[in-house]
Amino acid sequence: MNQHPLDLVPREPRTCIWEITRRCNLRCIHCENQCGDPSPRELPIERFRAVARELFQLGCREVHVTGGEPLMHLHWENLCRDFAEIGLRTSLVTNGTLLNQGRLDRAIGVGVGTIGISLDGLQATHDSIRLRPGGGPSPWSESVAAIELALARIETVVITVVNRRNLAELPALHDFLAGLGVRRWQIQLAIPVGRVLDIKEPFLIAPSDLETLTSFLSRTRANGKAPRIDVSDTIGYFTERELSLRGEPDSPSLWTGCQAGIRAVAITYDGRVRGCSAMPPEFDAGDLHDESMTTIWNDAERFAYATRFDATKLAGPCGRCRVGPLCRGGCTTMAYWTTGSIYTNPYCLHRVRGGCS
């Protein structure tokens, strides 16, 4: 068999998603970590800078600071400054409810280059998903105010987690964001982990809904109007829409497998290292309380689900699919959480259409 494209690139953690805290002021119903109270195992401050230096030396160039709600970490400002000074392009991913003028000034002042703000629908939908314990102002209103504030000062990305409650209103949300002047909009799927498992009603979209979703994404990206849509790795794969979903208009891209553990890494709020932040504990490669980042990353066997992916184990429709060895079952995290295996994934448009039969 020919080598897979991911076997031909340098194995470097170019991008890191770093959860600096579990503490959060909201109780979002799709929260993977069921955030709220801080964890007693959150890394001590002195470890953050040491780990960040190791990441940079290993080849990391971009860090996404998240949580929980990162603005609730007492030292978020110093951490972002440290990351930026080391040479990491630093983005801050927030629910937006705490982002006021003062915190925005401080974020920009310490070198944050991008702000990511979550918005999961129009007001009623967003507020039904991103709950505020004890009541209070509308999270949607505060997040929209934060988006407007950030747009005038810094590169701003709006992030939407697609689910059954908001799928139908994505076109209206696109128009609303365009009216605000948003230039970048990241779309990703809700996955069945964390609080989602406690919801009695169906929350995830059905695989069959990928037809509607990808049609909207492909059509909207093609018109070239802002906001530009960034399609996450949970959505695709291998239909005539694939090239229109990824990359840029003058540089289309093709899905070539999950990069978690090869070109991407995540650090959980309690110091565990894994390829992707949404992966289950079974995929943990090490604990930064006990080992260095360098030791963990350089042991490729700890990321064997990616570094030694065995295409002969692809199962079900994925096992019969002619592009299975290249696709590697789509998003590893979605595959595992929906089936218990990384070798079959129902969230694939090619599969939904019967292309893997």
Query: Count of DSSP E strands?
Result: 14
Beta-strand residue percentage: 15-25%
Look at the structure and give the mean pLDDT: 96
Number of helices: 14
Oligomer: single chain
SSE string, helices as H and strands as E: EEHEHEHEHEHEHEHEHEEEEEHHHHHH
**Which consecutive residue ranges, at least 5 long each, have pLDDT under 50?**
none
Rg value: 20 Å
Shape: globular
Largest sheet: 10 strands, mixed
Search tags:
357 residues, 16% strand, globular
How is this structure best described in words?
With 357 residues, this protein is α/β, with parallel strands linked by helices. It contains 14 helices and 14 strands. It has helices spanning 45-58, 76-86, 101-109, 123-129, 139-151, 170-180, 210-222, 242-245, 293-298, 304-307, 316-320, 324-327, 332-339, 349-352, and strands spanning 15-19, 27-28, 62-66, 89-94, 114-118, 130-131, 155-162, 184-189, 228-231, 247-248, 251-252, 264-267, 272-274, 286-287. The protein has a 10-stranded mixed β-sheet with strand order 9-8-7-5-4-3-1-12-13-14. It starts with 14 loop residues before the first strand and ends in a 5-residue tail after the last helix. The mean pLDDT is 96.
